[in-house]
């Protein structure tokens, strides 16, 4: 009995304690959450769902500082017969078996519902969900048939999309009205601008605004289904005409620091003039004249340059396959006047090699010359075989034949520092640098160090692409830097076709090979860009190709593009086009040939034009002139920047042959001591020739006076070894 009393007292005490605690205010309160400033719901744009499918929604509560808050959020559907949303944000196009633990979504009817998320009385903007039958396909078509094969820039045209489901007997049923808003896309949005909000559009329609010239595919999509693409074309550029502000002959002269505006008139294939086309502006000598993307040309230093504006893929005539660059019918000739700053010349030697092999312990030196003052030499990490400056003068590229098992390679000189960097992934002779300075072509032909191949060095990221082509001896870039013509002098194409081969390298197209019928020595693009002239490639002498021609050789019966053939007295050794875009010079002993270009028209490359003619649409006439010096072996051809004179260097004459292009007369500048020129470089203003000669000095020739005014001697041996004496045989003027 005592035990029962004890238990009872314990229960009474427990009840009293509980009651007192309640009276004292110690009960647990429900958590309080702040009122959010906004609720965001994702996805916030319209959604489209097949019946029975699931869409996930998420939401976030934020304060007025757009900081996320932690608090419970609920989801709501405005039409639960069509769409139900579980507490975790999963939406069912039908009905969930459970809102708290959704597992099975039972399809419901077709319809529209709006989903919102809320917390403490604050609701998100609604997202509209369209529930529909399964979309079998989407079809896109013009609202009205187009009347032209393309649309000129800024013209508009409307398209309509229709969605279809599969009905009875596999028939297509139009369900467009139930699927919601279509999303429209262009594979290349630079060609066309698509809008679904333009005035006058019906549901499912989009307005296409022709933008930059080119072709692209457009398509519509909804509920994860894409239509088949259809083609849209903004009319290609057909022609470009340049005009200098205040000039009647497309030439101008400014002082250093001065500028001039150039206007480009662009006509498309519908013969409509179009504006704000993404043209590529190029200066042939960026160290003399620079040109902006709007056509403002600015003088940098005294000299001359040619300027063009081109429609260059991939930013213009976009998506055309093969690519179709369009160049102007003529160039702008720019002259910059002012006080000529001191000329800097870099001199080096190839003397540390014999018969293609290195001389043990021998290192080469490069020496700067400022005017006639010899500077401090820089020891090179490898023996150079070539030296070429970028046209803006910021970098010099020195090739080397000897990689020495990957330890040596292309050398890059920064003349401002001066400092050298080396890229051991590429060896060979530097053939050319692109006008924009971004690409360098190098050829490795040393039989002592296979493989025999060419390289393209990208200066923007110091990367290298190896081209599997052998026997490359010359190359030239188009003035817009789009293409390079690379010559294998007497090596058949990789397909085995031809006696020699022209390889066409492009920054946007695949490498192509064009078989040639004879050895080829040199190549030069017209300064306006539309045509390239080859010295050789046919026994007649000179062949001409369109830059835009992308015909591919397939076999011996399909040799690729057919060139225009020009007959010269002999196959030229060198060829150079002049800045005026109307003259071409080539050297074939014992004289020189002047090719006059009478007509320029590259429109036949456009897809909208008739089939390609068998030869380039350019008219030429050839005149030949004898220097009167007997036969000679030419080693170099230099044309003055203003296209007034040509200078020819030979292996057996102690003078430089001069051809006055305007008067079509010849003369010679004798080197003091009857020294034989080895290599030369001309200043940007054309007044001085620096000539590395057989007597071990550099001769400075005044081209205006026609005389040898200075002979620069070098106190140091160009090879840092006592057993041999190396004389300068590489020379280049910094632009």
Could you characterize the architecture of this molecule?
- The structure is a single chain.
- By secondary structure, the protein is mainly β.
- The protein is 3% helix and 46% strand.
- It is built from 1 helix and 66 strands.
- The strands form 17 sheets. Strands 2, 6, 11, 12 and 13 form a 5-stranded mixed beta sheet that branches. Strands 14, 15, 16, 18 and 19 form a 5-stranded antiparallel beta sheet that branches. Strands 23, 25, 26, 28 and 29 form a 5-stranded antiparallel beta sheet that branches.
- The longest helix has 22 residues, at 2-23.
- It is elongated.
- It starts with a helix and ends with a strand.
Percent helix among the residues? under 10%
Structure annotation, total helices = 1
Q: What portion of residues belong to β-strands?
A: over 45%
Question: Which parts are unreliable, with pLDDT below 50 for 5 consecutive residues or more?
Answer: 1-28, 608-614
Mean pLDDT: 90
**SSE class:** mainly beta
Distance between the termini: 120 Å
* Quaternary organization: single chain
Radius of gyration: 37 Å
Major sheet: size, sense and barrel closure?
5 strands, mixed
Total beta strand runs: 66
What overall form do the CA principal axes indicate?
Answer: elongated
Concise summary:
The chain has 735 residues and is mainly β.
Q: Could you outline the blueprint of secondary structure elements for this entry?
A:
Blueprint: H1 2-23, E1 38-42, E2 47-50, E3 54-56, E4 58-62, E5 68-69, E6 74-77, E7 84-85, E8 90-92, E9 94-96, E10 105-107, E11 111-119, E12 122-123, E13 127-132, E14 137-142, E15 156-166, E16 172-174, E17 183-186, E18 192-195, E19 205-210, E20 214-222, E21 225-226, E22 230-234, E23 237-244, E24 251-255, E25 259-268, E26 273-274, E27 280-283, E28 289-291, E29 296-299, E30 303-310, E31 332-337, E32 344-348, E33 353-354, E34 357-358, E35 365-370, E36 373-374, E37 378-379, E38 386-389, E39 396-399, E40 410-414, E41 419-423, E42 429-433, E43 439-444, E44 453-458, E45 463-467, E46 472-477, E47 483-488, E48 500-506, E49 512-516, E50 520-525, E51 531-536, E52 541-546, E53 564-567, E54 574-577, E55 583-588, E56 591-600, E57 618-626, E58 634-639, E59 645-650, E60 655-660, E61 665-670, E62 677-682, E63 688-693, E64 698-702, E65 707-712, E66 730-733
Parallel strand pairs: 2-13, 24-31
Antiparallel strand pairs: 1-4, 3-8, 4-5, 6-11, 7-8, 9-10, 11-12, 11-13, 14-15, 15-16, 15-19, 17-20, 18-19, 20-21, 20-22, 23-25, 25-26, 25-29, 27-30, 28-29, 30-31, 32-35, 32-66, 33-34, 35-36, 35-37, 38-39, 39-40, 40-41, 42-43, 43-44, 44-45, 46-47, 47-48, 48-49, 50-51, 51-52, 52-53, 54-55, 55-56, ...
């Amino acid at each position: 009995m005592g035990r029962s009393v004890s238990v009872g007292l314990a229960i009474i005490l427990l009840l009293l304690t509980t009651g007192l605690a309640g009276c004292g205010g110690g009960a647990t309160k429900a958590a309080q959450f702040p009122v959010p400033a906004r609720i965001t719901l994702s996805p916030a744009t319209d959604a489209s769902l097949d019946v029975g499918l699931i869409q996930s929604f998420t939401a976030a509560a934020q304060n007025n500082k757009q900081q996320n808050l932690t608090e419970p959020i609920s989801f709501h559907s405005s039409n639960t017969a069509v769409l139900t949303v579980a507490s975790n944000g999963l939406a069912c196009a039908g009905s969930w078996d459970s809102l708290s633990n959704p597992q099975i979504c039972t399809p419901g009817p077709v319809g529209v519902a709006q989903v919102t998320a809320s917390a403490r009385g604050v609701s998100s903007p609604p997202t509209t969900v369209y529930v529909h039958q399964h979309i079998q396909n989407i079809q896109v078509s013009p609202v009205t048939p187009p009347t032209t094969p393309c649309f000129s820039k800024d013209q508009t045209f409307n398209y309509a999309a229709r969605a279809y489901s599969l009905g009875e007997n596999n028939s297509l049923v139009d369900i467009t009205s139930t699927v919601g808003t279509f999303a429209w896309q262009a594979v290349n949005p630079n060609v066309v601008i698509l809008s679904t909000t333009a005035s006058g559009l019906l549901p499912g329609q989009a307005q296409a605004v022709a933008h930059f010239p080119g072709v692209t595919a457009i398509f519509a999509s909804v509920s994860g289904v894409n239509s088949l693409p259809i083609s849209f074309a903004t009319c290609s550029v057909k022609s470009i005409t340049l005009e200098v502000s205040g000039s009647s002959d497309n030439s101008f002269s400014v002082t250093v620091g001065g500028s001039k505006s150039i206007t480009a008139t662009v006509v498309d294939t519908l013969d409509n003039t179009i504006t704000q086309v993404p043209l590529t502006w190029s200066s042939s000598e960026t160290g003399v004249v620079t040109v902006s993307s709007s056509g403002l040309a600015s003088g940098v230093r005294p000299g001359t340059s040619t300027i063009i504006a081109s429609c260059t893929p991939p930013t213009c005539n976009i998506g055309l396959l093969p690519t179709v660059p369009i160049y102007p019918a003529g160039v702008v000739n720019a002259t910059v006047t002012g006080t000529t700053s001191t000329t800097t010349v870099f001199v080096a030697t190839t003397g540390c090699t014999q018969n293609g092999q290195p001389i043990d312990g021998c290192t080469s030196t490069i020496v700067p010359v400022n005017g006639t003052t010899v500077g401090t030499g820089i020891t090179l990490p490898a023996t150079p075989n070539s030296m070429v400056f970028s046209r803006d003068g910021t970098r010099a590229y020195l090739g080397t034949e000897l990689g020495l098992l990957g330890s040596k390679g292309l050398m890059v000189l920064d003349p401002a520092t001066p400092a050298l960097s080396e890229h051991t992934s590429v060896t060979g002779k530097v053939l050319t640098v692109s006008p924009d300075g971004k690409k360098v072509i190098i050829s490795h032909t040393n039989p002592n160090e296979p493989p025999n191949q060419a390289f393209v060095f990208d200066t923007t990221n110091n990367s290298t692409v190896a081209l599997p082509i052998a026997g490359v001896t010359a190359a030239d870039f188009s003035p817009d830097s789009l293409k390079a013509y690379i010559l294998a002098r007497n090596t058949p194409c990789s397909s085995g076709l031809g006696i020699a081969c022209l390889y066409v390298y492009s920054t946007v197209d695949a490498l192509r090979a064009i078989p040639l019928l004879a050895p080829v020595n040199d190549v030069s693009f017209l300064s306006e860009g539309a045509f390239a002239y080859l010295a050789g490639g046919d026994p007649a002498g000179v062949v001409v190709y369109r830059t835009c021609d992308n015909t591919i050789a397939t076999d011996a019966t399909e040799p690729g593009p057919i060139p225009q053939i020009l007959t010269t007295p002999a196959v030229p050794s060198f060829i150079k086009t002049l800045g005026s875009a109307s003259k071409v010079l080539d050297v074939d002993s014992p004289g020189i040939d002047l090719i006059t270009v009478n007509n320029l028209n590259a429109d036949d490359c456009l897809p909208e034009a008739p089939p390609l003619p068998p030869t380039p649409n350019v008219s030429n006439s050839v005149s030949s002139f004898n220097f009167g010096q007997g036969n000679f072996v030419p080693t170099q051809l230099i044309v003055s920047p203003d296209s007034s004179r040509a200078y020819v260097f030979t292996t057996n004459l102690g003078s430089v042959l001069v051809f006055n292009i305007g008067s079509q007369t010849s003369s010679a500048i004798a080197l003091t001591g009857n020294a034989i020129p080895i290599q030369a470089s001309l200043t940007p203003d054309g007044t001085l020739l620096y000539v590395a000669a057989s007597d071990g000095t550099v001769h400075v020739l005044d081209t205006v006076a026609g005389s040898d005014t200075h002979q620069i001697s070098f106190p140091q041996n160009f090879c840092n070894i006592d057993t041999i004496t190396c004389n300068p045989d590489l020379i280049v003027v910094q632009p």
